[in-house]
Amino acid sequence: MAGEYHSLKKQQYLNLIKECAHSGKNKREWCSEKGIKYSTFMRWQALLRDEVAEQVMEQQAIVPVKIAPPASGTRIPDRSSRQEVEIRKGELSISLPNSVSAAYILEIIKGLS
């Protein structure tokens, strides 16, 4: 029974937070109009944010990436004066010397996919 009550309260908090977000008003103004203490509203928001963060952390896993050492073979031609190759995915950035083989770079890209 207590679990259901907490779930309903969290849903109520979430609905109010969404209503505030869609109101076009800042949080303090919206809380004042609704008769909700700003500190209480912020506590609800922190509670829900922390709960979501815990759920995300539980779902994350370390994924091993196997990369073979550079094979002797095709080298990336020096098309410019750049001395390195940069691979980016989201906030991750990997810089490699431009002498690394194309096969090695392909393995890195496959590992990031």
Proportion of residues in β-strands: 5-15%
User: How big is the Rg?
Assistant: 25 Å
Count of DSSP strands: 2
Task: Give the end-to-end Cα distance, rounded to a whole number of Å.
Answer: 44 Å
Query: How many strands, which pairing sense, and closed or not: the largest β-sheet?
Result: 2 strands, antiparallel
Quaternary state of the chains: single chain
Mean pLDDT: 78
Fraction of helical residues:
55-70%
Number of domains: 2
Order of helices and strands: HHHEEH
Describe the structure.
This protein is mostly helical and 113 residues long. The chain folds into two domains: 58 residues; 51 residues, no CATH class. Helices cover 56% and strands 11% of the residues. It has a two-stranded antiparallel sheet. A hairpin with a 2-residue loop joins strand 1 and strand 2. Helix 1 crosses helix 3.
Chart the SSEs and their pairings.
Layout: H1 2-23, H2 27-34, H3 38-59, E1 84-89, E2 92-97, H4 102-112
Antiparallel strand pairs: 1-2
